[in-house]
Amino acid sequence: MQVRIYRPAKTAMQSGRSGNAKAWVLEYEPAAPKQPDNLMGWLGSADMTSQVRLKFATAEDAIAFAKKKGMDFQVFAENTRLQKPKNYSDNFRFDKLEFGRF
């Protein structure tokens, strides 16, 4: 079975580096496409492995688990966060050039 190992990005509802952003996730690749249900129109699949998400503290733990179970895995690198330092006092600098404001 093909699995992917990645560290999920934080959701828009999170303000800090907590929750899902700390754990590494092992997730199965979808084996069957999702199809709409005839009665309700909801998307579903007969593939039960699409519901399985395993969380690990480190990427090495997830890789060791995948190797132990004989799974083919692909590790996605973690996206680095770019932080621009901002100061509140920069809003009121005298040397700041702004055009169109009088």
TrEMBL record:
<keyword id="KW-0249">Electron transport</keyword>
<dbReference type="Pfam" id="PF04800">
    <property type="entry name" value="NDUS4"/>
</dbReference>
<keyword id="KW-0813">Transport</keyword>
<dbReference type="InterPro" id="IPR006885">
    <property type="entry name" value="NADH_UbQ_FeS_4_mit-like"/>
</dbReference>
<dbReference type="InterPro" id="IPR038532">
    <property type="entry name" value="NDUFS4-like_sf"/>
</dbReference>
<keyword id="KW-0679">Respiratory chain</keyword>
<keyword id="KW-0809">Transit peptide</keyword>
<dbReference type="GO" id="GO:0022900">
    <property type="term" value="P:electron transport chain"/>
</dbReference>
<dbReference type="GO" id="GO:0016020">
    <property type="term" value="C:membrane"/>
</dbReference>
<protein>
    <submittedName>
        <fullName>Oxidoreductase</fullName>
    </submittedName>
</protein>
<keyword id="KW-0472">Membrane</keyword>
